What we know:
The protein is extended and about 65 Å long. Helices cover 30% and strands 16% of the residues. It is of the alpha/beta class. The protein starts with 18 loop residues before the first strand and ends in a 24-residue tail after the last strand. The chain has a four-stranded parallel sheet with strand order 1-2-3-4, with helices on one face. Helix 1 packs parallel to helix 2.
Amino acid sequence: MSYANTAGLPPVDATTPPVLTLADPLPRSQVGGLCDDLRALLERAAGGVVVCEVAGLGAPGLTTVDLLARLQLTARRGGGRIRLRAPDPALLALLDLVGLRFEVEGDPEQREPPLGVEEEVESGEAAV
C-alpha cells in the first residue's frame, strides 16, 4: 500500500453553514413548510449542518419545543443536524427539561473546557 506525499495542508471547505431564520408567531400550519425549507438547505449544506436563528422566537413554549424537535428529526433523517444561534436561556432550560439536546453556536465542544478555565490540581501533585 502506498500513497502520495503532498506538500502543505489538505484542502478544507471553509464555507459557512446556511441559516434558517425562525420568527414569532409560528402557526402550526407553517411547520411543514419549514421542514421543507430545512431539507432544501441541507442539500447544499457543507458538513450537513444548518444553523437555526432562534433569537426572534420570543418567549419559549411547548410549541417552540415541538417545532425544534421536528426540525431536528427532519435534519437527522436527511443525514444532517441543526445548530441553534442566539437561543434564549429560558428556551435552553425548557429544552433541557424535556430532554432535548441541541448544538448551540458558540458553545465549546462537549468535554472541552471553555477558554481561560483551568482544572484544579490536588496539592502535592506534580505539575504536568
